[in-house]
Input
Amino acid sequence: MKAAIGIDIGGTKIAIGVVDENGKILSDTQFPTEVELGPDNAMKQIISHVSEMREKHKEIAGIGIGCPGPIDTKKGIVVNPPNLKTWHDYPVVQEIESAFQMPVRLLNDADAAALGEYFFTYRHTYLHVLYLTVSTGIGGGIIINGRLYEGASSGAGEIGHSVIEPNGPLCGCGKRGCLEALASGTALTRIWKQRLANAGSPIEPTWGGKELFAQAESGDSLANEVIEESSEYIALGLSQTIQTLNPELLILGGGVVIGQPEFYKKIRKKLSFYLLNPHKQALQIERASHGAMAGVKGAAASILENS
Ligand SMILES: [Zn+2]
Output
């Protein structure tokens, strides 16, 4: 059976795995990115781990790389991601191609996760799929006619940076009121703590999303208000993309959606108010099922889908 190597480069860690056509991980490893030491340091470790994996698995068809944006997937360059501050115009594809002489493909990390979820679970069932992940940030990916759609500058599916509130909170991208600044896991905690402070209520510095959802469940009205609002924002952001693409399947993933079933249900319910009937009737909604390895699997799938 054919297999490919997937590399998932993140701000804190790099995960690498050998993945077969059924999505089974045959071998995997992970290590800290150590952003402060620069890309050459990380690349040395990537090359050493990939070499070992190639020795062990002779059926490898190529190497896919998922990386936070902005990146240039056509030129194979990591441009200047905020999560990888020392990686400027880094030719990641060229580095790996020259070390291994095999097909190498670079894609945006949310696109990789979208492709991982799609390719290994739904490629025989659906052609048009929208994927959204809600974790520390909000990212999306689009599959059209069974293929990942990347757009003109590798930025298709950036639903997290749709402006939902024109004068809303400042987003990491520099704009105001992006969905990510209103409804990501990070935003939820920040907004909740702000409101507690405004109400003069006590706040524990260690409180995060887990405490927010626990308080909401115990009936706290402020916590419930924050969760109601953010699920509404996510539904609103999603509905605009769904009206545009008319997908057959929406996959919702990321720590906040997977870890909080009530939050997932709220998004589903609110979404149904915003969609036209034909879009609603054509749409299935599922939760992501590949967890933290979706990025590695999707990076590998970017090779497997072409080989
Ligand atoms: Zn933004």
